């Protein structure tokens, strides 16, 4: 009998409907409305699994875990045998253990040869272990979880079902969803939230929890994206998700129940520093265009990701604050140090700050790296500057004509309201640049006959 895990209606008989209804999917770029029915590529089966094909491969990366690995694998095996109706395998990926973990993993493989596989790597690194085992796996869906099983295993089926049905490309557990139930210390909670907020600002990430050790990916997608992932350690997860999002892939999020492992040996400070270096490296690579995300997007038939409004607003606000400070500093330098007239100094400083503001919002806030259209965007930025001045001046003139002796407080409120209107208008206009870029990227990727799914 053939197992047909298809994109078409129905998918797998078990879980396909759930995949479309479970909340939390973040869409990187499926946009059927952007094509006419004649241009839309025909849906193809995600996989066609012949008897004996492994549908799910769950990798458990381990380093010196001799006291926990046996109980972990046995518990995971019991859970999969009782809840997962398709062929599966558990892969123990030992990366550099020296405490006997490797021997225990080999013993587990010997006891359960049809369901457990033991892999040993001489070098340490969770990312290295995952990249190696996922790349070598013949399974159709690839997953991993931490050896401490901090995540409740009841979330495993909701994690992989959207991938098996063809609804999503990757799936991640999230501890930061409002319906997640998480038991961990205040310090770790604070660090986790700050890290993910930083990813939103620095890389425009739209996913909510990069470091939860509970993820899955379709094998065909993994073959495209894994060669681009460089980090061999803890930043592997973040890099994988950022590249997937920039490639227009759909990331499904599953709220999880998660219980902190009191025996965790993760070096929080060292990991944080490595993550910061990883963020800077990925940011440089994305800005320079070195990564092949455009090629992945075209080969998989995705459109350019539209970006997440929350992160865009945060970056837009940060750019606004920085350009305001630049404007004030420029005015002080021109007027106070160089003796330029106040009006001339104000206009020149404001002009420079506006050009910098437009460039920063274009490249950082909305992720537009192409030079094409840059001059037109700068002209629109200057037009928005004129609009801002016209709105504020017009509001004050209107107030003066209706209330000549209006108090300063009222004038300030009216002026602030006009600035809010101008700022929202500016954000909307600049965000439209991103949508125009997405449409052009889609047209370039699909040509006349649509992309290849």
TrEMBL record:
Keywords: Endoplasmic reticulum, Glycosyltransferase, Membrane, Signal-anchor, Transferase, Transmembrane, Transmembrane helix. It is a single-pass membrane protein; Multi-pass membrane protein. It is an enzyme of class 2 (transferase). Residues 1-16 have a biased composition (Low complexity). It is found in: Endoplasmic reticulum membrane; Membrane. Its EC number is 2.4.1.117. SUPFAM superfamilies: Nucleotide-diphospho-sugar transferases. Residues 1-50 are annotated as: Disordered. Residues 58-225 form the Glycosyltransferase 2-like domain. It comes from the Bacteria. Residues 315-433 form the GtrA/DPMS transmembrane domain. The keyword Membrane applies. It catalyses: a di-trans,poly-cis-dolichyl phosphate + UDP-alpha-D-glucose = a di-trans,poly-cis-dolichyl beta-D-glucosyl phosphate + UDP. Pathway: Protein modification; protein glycosylation. Pfam families: Glycos_transf_2, GtrA_DPMS_TM. The chain crosses the membrane at residues 340-360, 381-399, 405-425. The keyword Endoplasmic reticulum applies. Belongs to the glycosyltransferase 2 family. PANTHER family: DOLICHYL-PHOSPHATE BETA-GLUCOSYLTRANSFERASE (PTHR10859:SF91), GLYCOSYL TRANSFERASE (PTHR10859). This is dolichyl-phosphate beta-glucosyltransferase. It comes from Brachybacterium kimchii.
């Amino acid at each position: 009998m053939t197992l047909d895990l298809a994109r078409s209606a129905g998918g797998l008989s078990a879980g396909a409907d759930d995949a479309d209804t479970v909340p939390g999917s973040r869409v990187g770029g499926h946009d059927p409305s952007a094509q006419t029915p004649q241009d839309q590529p025909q849906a193809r089966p995600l996989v066609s699994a012949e008897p004996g094909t492994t549908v799910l491969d769950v990798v458990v990366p381990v380093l010196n875990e001799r006291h926990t690995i046996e109980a972990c694998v046995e518990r995971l095996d019991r859970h999969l045998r009782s809840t997962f109706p398709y062929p599966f395998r558990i892969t123990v990926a030992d990366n550099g253990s020296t405490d006997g973990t490797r021997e225990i993993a080999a013993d587990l493989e010997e006891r359960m040869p049809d369901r457990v596989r033991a892999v040993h790597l001489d070098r340490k690194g969770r990312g290295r272990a995952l990249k190696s085992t996922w790349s070598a796996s013949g399974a159709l869906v690839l997953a991993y979880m931490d050896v401490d099983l901090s995540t409740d295993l009841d979330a495993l089926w909701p994690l992989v079902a959207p991938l098996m049905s063809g609804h999503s490309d990757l799936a991640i557990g999230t501890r930061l969803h409002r319906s997640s139930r998480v038991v961990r210390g205040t310090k770790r909670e604070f660090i986790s939230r700050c890290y993910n907020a930083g990813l939103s600002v620095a890389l425009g990430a739209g996913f909510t929890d990069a470091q939860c050790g509970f993820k899955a990916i379709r094998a065909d997608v993994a073959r495209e994206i894994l060669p681009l992932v460089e980090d061999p350690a803890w930043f592997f997860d973040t890099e994988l998700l950022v590249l997937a999002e920039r490639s227009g892939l759909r990331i499904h999020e599953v709220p999880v129940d998660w219980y902190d492992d009191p025996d965790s040996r993760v070096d929080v400070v060292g990991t944080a520093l490595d993550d910061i270096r990883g963020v800077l490296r990925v940011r440089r690579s994305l800005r320079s265009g070195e990564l092949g995300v455009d090629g992945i997007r075209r080969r998989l038939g995705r459109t350019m990701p539209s970006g997440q409004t929350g992160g865009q607003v945060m970056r837009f606000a940060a750019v606004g604050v920085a350009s305001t400070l630049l404007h004030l500093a420029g005015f002080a330098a021109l007027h106070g140090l160089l003796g330029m007239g106040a009006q001339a100094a104000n206009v020149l400083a404001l002009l420079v700050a506006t050009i910098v503001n437009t460039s920063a919002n274009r490249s950082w806030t909305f992720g537009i790296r192409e030079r094409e259209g840059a001059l037109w965007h700068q002209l629109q930025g200057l037009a928005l500057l004129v609009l801002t001045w016209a709105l504020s001046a017009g509001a004050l003139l209107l107030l003066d004509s209706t209330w000549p002796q209006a108090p300063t407080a009222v004038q300030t409120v009216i002026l602030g309201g006009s600035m809010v209107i101008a700022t929202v208008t500016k954000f909307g206009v600049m965000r439209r640049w991103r949508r125009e870029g997405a449409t052009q990227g889609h047209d370039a990727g699909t040509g006349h006959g649509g992309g290849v799914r």
